[in-house]
Specification:
This is Two-component response regulator ARR2. By secondary structure, the protein is an all-alpha fold. The chain is built from 14 helices and two strands. The chain has a domain of 51 residues: Homeodomain-like (Arc Repressor Mutant, subunit A), CATH 1.10.10.60. The protein binds a DNA duplex through strand 2 and helix 14.
Length: 456
DNA sequence: CCATGAATAT
DNA sequence: AATATTCATG
């Protein structure tokens, strides 16, 4: 059961109601430094930035553009508070966090922000301040040599920045810090009558993996970037379309943030390794750079001595972008495993393993061992086996399981049978550019003899 | 506690 | 639809 933040904070602030859909509501608590000057001006808020306001369209239009395309989708989308929210965004862990509570939380924060603007009352801005402070600290810590997205929020990054700017490698750190700060402050705001929020976490493992602040941050970052895009063109970041799947909102600037993170990851070499694979993981349901199978497999090995690069949680299923944080001992903490794609090659191996083992022994674990594919899990096999068996039951032989390459659309006679590729090609959405900044996946993977590294 | 497989979720 | 995750069961 989700903690009723609305009620609690209303109690504290005496907030009545109806900050609800005020477009400014979501903006305020995120820190005025993140406000586009236009918005700040429009609402009489202090504009802390130095970025010259873009040529001003008629006010109405401005709000329309800002709130229509930016604020609402970004914030509301990030909150997943409304019907249009992405189905992929919600995680089982979020289950108990009622959307009304999410919205209420925003409302409350908005209220706090407004109070803060009017009369610097510590208590009321505690959440925002704490979060901001923590964010700054985190940013400083993880990107000491350069400015972070937070420390210089008004600096419009260049295109190259999105790829190479260390700030984005710290994006998650910042977000995590935000997340932590928010939950922590929410938890410790007891004096004001707040009880510790019992945000539902079905796993019960990470009590303070509070998605809300993460989402807020994402929205904030998206705003910031959108705002930066003023000078670049349409007001849409050029990267928005590269990873349409991340938040399942291709048009949402929230995707930009994800793209930035993903780009940062790409810069570290993930997603472009040239090696052969029977199967492959792809980071998104709908799109994204191809992740090299073996690289991933390696990445999953906790003990690996690879650079502690942000193996960004470029996975939309990721419960929290903090998932890939590193524990004190340097070992990687739970990284969400990307979705496996059963390529024809992989399926072949699967099938031959099944046949070889025979009906009796063809159980997931055995099959997995027989296949001897690095990184392949029992769950992977079990799931595929389930489908395989179903497929058989319904008349067809298992080999008819349609494990085509994900960029192949084979319907009717429209197209010739796809040649079996030596390497799996991962989904490339129709409109998606190859990869942001050229660092992402390409289809240029090179066969190297056909065997995935034997595992172990 | 672990593996399995069906059911269910994403 | 494909794959992942959950859950009851052995």
């Amino acid at each position: 059961m989700a903690y009723d933040v609305v009620q609690a904070l209303q109690g504290i602030y005496g907030m009545k109601d109806d900050y609800g859909l005020d477009p400014s509501a979501g903006l305020v608590p995120l820190g005025t430094s993140l406000l586009p000057p236009i918005v700040a001006q429009a609402f009489g808020l202090p504009s802390l930035g130095s970025l010259a306001p873009p040529p001003q369209p008629p006010p109405q239009q401005q709000y329309q553009a800002l709130y229509g395309s930016m604020v609402n989708p970004a914030l509301l989308g990030a909150l997943g508070a409304f019907g249009g929210a992405s189905q992929y965004q919600s995680q089982p862990h979020y289950g108990g966090l009622a959307s009304t509570s999410a919205l209420g939380y925003l409302q409350a924060l908005a209220a706090a922000g407004q109070h803060q603007q009017q009369q610097q009352q510590q208590q009321q801005s505690a959440v925002a301040l704490l979060a901001h402070t923590a964010a700054l600290a985190a940013a400083a810590r993880s990107a000491p040599a350069s400015s972070s997205a937070f420390s210089q929020p008004m600096q419009p990054p260049t295109a190259a920045d999105y790829c190479s700017h260390p700030a984005y490698s710290s994006a998650r750190a910042v977000a995590c810090e935000l997340e932590r700060a928010a939950t922590a402050s929410a938890t410790t705001s007891g004096p004001s009558g707040m009880k510790g929020p019992t945000f539902s976490n079905s796993a019960g493992s990470a009590p303070y993996q509070h998605p809300l602040m993460q989402n807020l941050y994402t929205a904030a970052l998206a705003q910031q970037q959108q705002q930066s895009a003023y000078g670049v063109g349409q007001g849409m970041s050029p990267y928005a379309s590269h990873f349409p799947g991340y938040y399942a909102r291709p048009d949402t600037s929230a995707a930009v943030a994800a793209a930035a993170v993903a780009a940062a990851a790409g810069a570290y070499g993930y997603g472009q390794a040239p090696s052969v694979s029977y199967g492959a993981y792809h980071p998104s349901y709908s799109s994204g750079p191809a992740l090299d199978y073996s690289a991933l497999a390696a990445a999953y090995r906790p003990a690996m001595s690879a650079p502690a690069a942000p193996t960004a949680s470029i996975n939309p299923q990721s419960q929290s972008i903090c998932d890939d944080e590193y524990a004190d001992d340097g070992s990687a903490r739970a990284i969400k495993r990307p979705r496996l794609v059963w390529t024809p090659q992989l399926h072949k191996k699967f099938e031959s393993a099944v046949l070889k083992l025979g009906d009796e022994k063809a159980v997931p674990k055995n099959i997995m061992q027989e296949m001897n594919i690095d990184g392949l899990t029992r769950e992977n096999v079990a799931s595929h086996l389930q489908k395989y068996r179903m497929s058989r039951k319904h008349g067809r032989d298992g080999s008819s399981i349609d494990c085509r390459d994900s960029d192949t659309v084979t319907i009717g006679s429209k197209r010739e049978p796809e040649p079996i590729r030596p390497t799996p090609i991962l989904a490339q959405p129709p409109g998606a550019a190859k990869a942001a900044c050229g660092a992402g996946a390409s289809s240029e993977q090179i066969a190297n003899g056909g065997s995935l590294g034997a595992r172990d």
